[in-house]
């Protein structure tokens, strides 16, 4: 009996420990966060092809990734950008703070305008890129791929400014494609035709306002809409109702990623590794090494990384260059190694596709200088293609070409085209 009595508490303790461990691991089985648009997206999700975007459950595709891509190029595509990190930066010194931490001259950004920018650490390596919206003279919204609240708060010391993350409070939608303007007009957003590329304005919606900017990540005619989270579903329904006859479709990230590649746009931690994520020193990139050198405004005051960037330029210490490639054949060269004369490894492809619009096999690649810079001849990519259930290595010639790979006049047409 004494032996049995000793075993019972042990068994109970083991059982309790197992239960506690199962409970502690329950979060691994819990669905990821849902955005304010999740009920509408879940109702359309036929493929059930999800990925984790900053903790949110986001779709790779909803119904068919090929047709979703063509919805962008021939109709109107609706994409949930709510998981994108959003910061409200407001106060008398908001402009001065942003001018101090970002590359472009914020004093040149007028109210009601947006610009694409980036920011670096003190050594001149890119922390992230994103869009900066000037909502009012002393109020901005900064949108980015990664989270930077501690860094922004530290940078704000000494400035009369408030920095607040509003990712959960503000829902966002990207409406992209040739019929996107017509969808907004038919939805009753009077005056939206006056928005030029990179303009923004507030419009009435459901007893409040929605901020609409003529921006996007597709290289096409398009808009981004930001609304308080509690007005998200009514905005979705308003757009879907007005766009029904214009072919509006909800899409996932795969289709958007194809469109952005055709537009020659880059993605943080896909085409370059951000400074906070880089483990190896050779993964760090300066703005000039990823095609963002055009942003750097040396006429403004001091900004993060200025000294290091100037030194790298003066002493020719820039090590890499990001290039567009046109590759022979029609097999995408995703994550292919780039060679010089089929022998020397000189870089890596970060994104690739056969472009239906450009009718070319295109890619973005990071190459070690001077390759892709002063040496652009005799470049090859190594592609592994499936042939009769076996992978076959193909060496295909690559040519350095300008980005964007396609340029659509309707993106910047003013007034926007009515398709």
TrEMBL record:
InterPro entries assigned to the protein according to its UniProt record, in alphabetical order: GcvT/YgfZ/DmdA, GcvT/YgfZ_C, GcvT_C, GCVT_N, TrmE/GcvT-like
Domain GCVT N-terminal: from-to ranges: 66-300
Species lineage: Bacteria, Pseudomonadati, Pseudomonadota, Alphaproteobacteria, Hyphomicrobiales
Organism expressing this protein natively: Mesorhizobium cantuariense
Aminomethyltransferase C-terminal domain: residues covered: 322-407
Pfam families recorded: GCV_T, GCV_T_C
Record's protein name: Aminomethyltransferase family protein
